[in-house]
Amino acid sequence: MSKRVVITGIGVTSPVGNDAESFWKALCEGRSGIDCVTQFDTADYPTKIAGEVRGLDFSLYVDPKEVRRNDRAILLGLVAAQMAIKDSGLDLESADLDRIGVIVGSGVGGLRTMETEHTKLTSRGPGRVSPFLIPMMITDMPTGCISIQHGLRGPNYAVVSACASAANSLGDAFMMIKCGMMDAAVAGGTEAAITPISFAGFCSMKAMSTRNGAPQKASSPFDTKRDGFVMGEGSGIVVMETLEHAQKRGARIYGEMLGYGATGDAHHLSHPAPDGVGAQSAMRMALSSAGLNAADIDYINAHGTSTPLNDKYETTAIKKVFGEAAKTVSISSTKSMTGHLLGASGGIEFVASLLAIRDGIIPPTANLDDPDPECDLDYTPNKAVKRAVKYAMSNSFGFGGHNASLIVGGYDG
Fold first, then answer.
1. Cβ atoms within 10 A of the Cβ of 31, count?
2. Contact (CB, 8 A) for 235 and 188
3. What is the pLDDT of residue 266?
4. Cα diameter, the chain
């Protein structure tokens, strides 16, 4: 018998706030966290802006010695996981830790560590490379470190599916809890890819915005002026449990996970399939697994990257899947304020979808001043809108043709 799955804890680090409530407040106010890059010298780069996590003291969450030994992507994940576990009220002293898993995705893992240690290798020789290189670099280490820090011995792995990593991680956790493999999970994504080589690669692809003179206006999903995505960093992690497990301990419930769809484009390394056919399939799969019709969805947190093809094809995909309901569903891209957190984006956007349900607020798409005629749906331009939200969908699509769609609903007992 399949289990009902609910969300009881949330944790966020982001360019607009380093806890879930400050993150949510910024989104609802339409405040951007995008500014000039401070983590390295961008003088020779065509793109000089990003959404950085600022003002976060890792030593408040992790032993200072461990801070030095861990990559930024790991640290961001550890912080958000601590927040989510604390928020959930889980008593790890009395819980069955063999039945609690960790599934946290990342698109590129410890890229900063790889760059730093490669520089040591080429300039000072192999003997100067850190013995912590491998554990700091590999993409599954945020998951491993969260598990170790909290003693969680259930299913433990990372999903790597580019910008769909966090969404696929959440979906996998949902399915494993639903089928009885674990009672609870810490799940989501973390990313810290604002590094010289990452920027160089995306700049060479001409994938990122070059509107450096107006950083907070640069991410403009669905607008005619959009010229590429703006990179962000951070983490979004939740605690999921069976309803029975949550009720037994009297947990506060944010919402109920209802549907998950995951598909592949089988089309191109970096371009979405025409008309978003893979995205269409993922949304349909999520609706089917949730037992819902498209008309039941009140809000879509769109992938909405501010790139010409993604925004156009996601619009087409929503129209194809939702039909007449596409005209009335509220949609927004919170990447307009956070930037694109790559493998972690689905984590913070899932949290935003949950809080939209909780508060009955549709966060806006910032910088949507001149809508693209081909993106003609209700993208909630510039100002938040009050609306009762019973069911929300969160979309994430990644290089390699990875598509993931999640559906969450308000918990009604």
1. 14
2. yes
3. 86
4. 64
